[in-house]
Every structure is written in structure tokens, then in C-alpha cells.
Amino acid sequence: MIPNFVQRIVEQVGLWASTTTLARWINNWEWAVPIFTVTHVFGLILLIGSAFVIALRCFGLALRRDSASAIIRAFSPATLGGLLLSTVSGALIFTGGPANYVHHRYFLLKMMTYTAALVTQLTVWGMALRDDGGERLVSPKWMVMGGLAFVLWVTVAVFGRSIAFFG
Amino acid sequence: MSLLEICQWIESTPSSTALRESLVVFPVIETTHVLGLAFSVGTILWFDLRLWGVGLLRYSVSEVFGYVKPWMFIGFALMIVTGSLLAWTHPVQAYNSWYFRTKLILLVVAAANTAVFHLTIDRRRAEWDNLPIPPLQARIAGAFSLLLWFVIVAVGRLMAYTLV
Fold it and tell me: I want to staple B142 with a disulfide (CB 3.0 to 4.6 A). Which of A42, A50, B26, B48 is the partner?
């Protein structure tokens, strides 16, 4: 289910991360991982919260006075902020203990889903930037893209929580 | 019977033991709690920002509340049900945790903040509903709500590191 190349990439990154000064610093400060974890949850709330409101607009269920592309552009600071917070804090949590993650099935599934969600999110932003805002109230392209981005980010969160319990 | 004894009794019940030791149900409850958090806090955030006068200014306060209300309530219902079940699985540890106590107190403060907002300035919402910058009391309620949820989420997550 998980391609070998994904496993190899994660192993190599993990091997490199474990030798860095940052990894030693994280391991020597007992509050590092709890603080990064709280930041990770804040990022998740911001990201999923904004992706959800965008999805509502894409399905014509909220903020109908503006076009879907205008709402995506207006929410982009929050979406980007949530994405950066969760990505940076997630990378720091990983750096603190790569051995806990590199062979973990749900971590690898999370990384694959994260990549798909990131590509989808970048595509959504690219489409929103090119759009002139003159589209209909509800258009199939925005229903697919807005809905897909939201579902993928929720799936990333579910796989993330699964790391703590399964594997 | 003291509160601690009640917690000890809860922990000894078959339902608490079954939930605690379940390899599937406990993770599902915990994951649902986090997703409920993302829905409720992730949507209330936009209402609070509108009250604060820093987001969605083209929409009236009533419109924004109407959009987020159903999802916010669904998220809160999920959080309360799953949060209660999580506390049911580890009542003695929760009782002894200062993070848990702080979280409960802050949840009461958040509810009081909401009640005060609805019983005072919100009763005159028609007067300021369309203003880009709402009155000071509404802005304070929005900012205070954001701050409270920020701290509630933080202590809730930090609590996991203190439970053995």
C-alpha cells in the first residue's frame, strides 16, 4: 500500500534530521515537543477551519455574495498561516524523534495524504488567482476542488491522530 | 461521597474499563474529539474575527453567525460528548490534573462570556449588525472568546503530557 520510494525518502530525511543540532536541542528540552504539539493543533484548527468555510462557499452554502475564487483569496492568509504553523511544528516534532515515525505506517500514510493535500491546495490557490470572479454561484470545478482540499486535510488530521494509537 | 470517590467509582465501572482498554473505540473517540475541536473552534474563529472587526467585513454579524452556527453547534456537541467519554475513561487522572481543572474553569468562563454577550450588547444587534467595526463591548467579547479558546485548546493538549 505504501510505495518503497516513500519509505526510503522518509528514512533518509529521518536519518539526516536525527544528526542535526536542532534534534539534540529538541531532545534536551522537555517542553519542546508539548509546545510544538500545541502549535500543531492550532495550525490544524486554522487550516481545517478555513478549508471548511471555503468548502461551504464552493457548495453555495455560505458567503454567497462573493465568488468562490474571491473567498479563497480572502481566506488565503488564514489557510496559509495554518498550513505553515502545522507544517513547521510537525517537522520539528519529527526532528525530535524520527525513529518513532520513519517506519510508522500511519505516518507514511499521513505524509502521502499531506503531499496530495498540498498539491490540491496549491492548485486551488492557482485557479483562484487566475479566476476573474465572474463565475456562477455554484460551479462544479469549485465543488470538486474545494471539497477535495477539505476532505484531504481532514484525512491528514485523522492519520496524524492514528499515529498515537495504531501502527 | 467526595468528588474523588465518585471519580474512583467511575473508573472502576465496567464501561470505563471497557472504553479505556479498547484498542479501537478509545482512539476513535479521541480522534473525533480533535476533529470536533477543529470544526467548532475553526468556525467560531470566523464569527469572533467578525465581532472583533478584522474579518468578513462585507457580511453582517448576523449573516456570519447564521453561516457558522449549525457547524459550530455540531462541533461543540461532538466535543462535549467525546470529551465526557474521554474523562469517563480516566476520571481519577483528570481529577488530579491541574490542566483539566483549568480547562473546565475556562470552559465555564467561555460559556459565561457567550451568555453575557447575548444578554447585553447582542440584544441591540440590529443597531450595529452591518457596521464593519462593531461596538467596543462586542469587539471585547470576540477577542476574549478567541483568547479563551486558544488557552482551552492549549491546556487540553498539554494535559495529555501529564497523564501517566
Answer: B48
